[in-house]
């Protein structure tokens, strides 16, 4: 099976890498890709947001499966165009991807499906903003209604800052603050059958101890030794299946990857947000542990055959990924700086640790240089989280990128918990 992956981040690097490990996958193509993906897939300089161009590429290559990675092409109708052209496609329609593209739409679907989430108001005037902020009190949670790559959300004790963010957006969702640990749970679905993957935890804030601004995600780990083993089943029955059923009932079935961002509050599980695609960086750790061949799984979802798939197989290893971000990320990052040490990681740390590229490209001299805010992520596996964590940080220490920053506490608390025997 020939596969085309759309996108060019660390998530797509992880997807392409896992696809090359699937014995049924004969070739992996990627558009537009990046400097790291070029080592595992054939790259095509095609605009991922252009449905006609992507469809032409898929037809020219004669691919059996197309996988759309990021949200923007999905919201732009790239999966619809591919399907209309007869290509088996993993990724929801533009209509179903509104689950991610509009926070207000997601709230409406959750209300109809009886899915637990934060109470909220949709506001488009300063008066509505003020009364919503007063209704909930601090900490204030203000979300831009449109796509914002994880950066449109402000959580603050400061009412003036909350108000300033709200009035800078055309339409916002203001909601109740949810306390408790966050979990990302992905499910593969064909619009009917829902197959949950293993849960992961993401670190959204830029700096250690969850300080600094929200980012797209600075690191992740899986499994979660502290979580209730029944969590996945509970979320399948209270969140994932009802949401998929509701979208099918509306005549806009959701086929692809449904990502539930959850808060485990004292009053139970609540949905923080849905995404319509694999999460980044959680995908790096979830796929590091998946033993079922990825191409077959995604193709079964794309063709409505998930019900026939045997149960997924998982490695008992733990996985940790740490993001290396460019100077000034998540504000406008500096780009064009060389990344050094990649060869040392490949020589010293494989096969237990590896680099997945996000914002990288090759410059005129053939050097790998930074080309985005999140530049790469280092992923490692081990018998437990402590081992995986040590390997990831050891590999990261060999890399150099001028002005770069990363968190030093990814999976730290969970690894300590595991070490103290409180896990499970
Ligand atoms: P989102 O883009 O909706 O995932 O929000 C980004 C981050 O903001 C989440 O991962 C949470 O850390 C935080 N956040 C969002 N909504 C809430 C909420 N209702 N209560 C507390 N924190 C939230
Ligand atoms: N890890 C957060 C996201 O993918 O949106």
Which ions, cofactors or small ligands are bound in this entry?
adenosine monophosphate, glycine
Please, what is the average pLDDT? 95
Count of beta strands: 22
Q: What portion of residues belong to β-strands?
A: 25-35%
Give the CATH superfamily of the largest domain. Answer: ATP-grasp fold, B domain
What is this entry, summarized?
The protein has 424 residues and is of the alpha+beta class. It has helices spanning 10-20, 51-61, 71-75, 78-84, 94-101, 103-113, 126-136, 159-168, 231-249, 282-289, 294-302, 342-348, 385-397, 412-419, and strands spanning 2-7, 27-32, 42-43, 65-68, 88-90, 120-123, 140-144, 153-156, 172-175, 182-189, 194-196, 201-202, 205-207, 211-214, 219-222, 256-265, 268-275, 318-325, 353-357, 360-362, 368-370, 374-382. It has 4 domains: 2-90, Rossmann fold (3-Layer(aba) Sandwich); 121-175, 2-Layer Sandwich (Dna Ligase, domain 1), CATH 3.30.1490.20; 181-308, D-amino Acid Aminotransferase, Chain A, domain 1, CATH 3.30.470; 318-420, Glycinamide Ribonucleotide Synthetase, Chain A, domain 4.
Walk me through what this model shows.
The chain has helices at residues 10-20, 51-61, 71-75, 78-84, 94-101, 103-113, 126-136, 159-168, 231-249, 282-289, 294-302, 342-348, 385-397, 412-419; strands at 2-7, 27-32, 42-43, 65-68, 88-90, 120-123, 140-144, 153-156, 172-175, 182-189, 194-196, 201-202, 205-207, 211-214, 219-222, 256-265, 268-275, 318-325, 353-357, 360-362, 368-370, 374-382. By secondary structure, it is α+β, with helices and mostly antiparallel strands. It is 33% helix and 25% strand. The radius of gyration is 20 Å and the shape is globular. A hairpin with a 5-residue loop joins strand 20 (360-362) and strand 21. The chain folds into four domains: 2-90, Rossmann fold; 121-175, ATP-grasp fold, A domain (Dna Ligase, domain 1); 181-308, ATP-grasp fold, B domain (D-amino Acid Aminotransferase, Chain A, domain 1, 2-Layer Sandwich), CATH 3.30.470; 318-420, Glycinamide Ribonucleotide Synthetase, Chain A, domain 4 (Alpha-Beta Complex), CATH 3.90.600. The chain contains 14 helices and 22 strands. The protein has a five-stranded parallel beta sheet, sandwiched between helices. It has a five-stranded antiparallel beta sheet with strand order 12-15-18-22-19, with helices on both faces. The relative contact order is 0.13. Helix 2 packs across helix 4 and helix 6 (103-113) packs across helix 9 (231-249). The structure holds adenosine monophosphate and glycine. Adenosine monophosphate binds next to strand 7, strand 8 and strand 17.
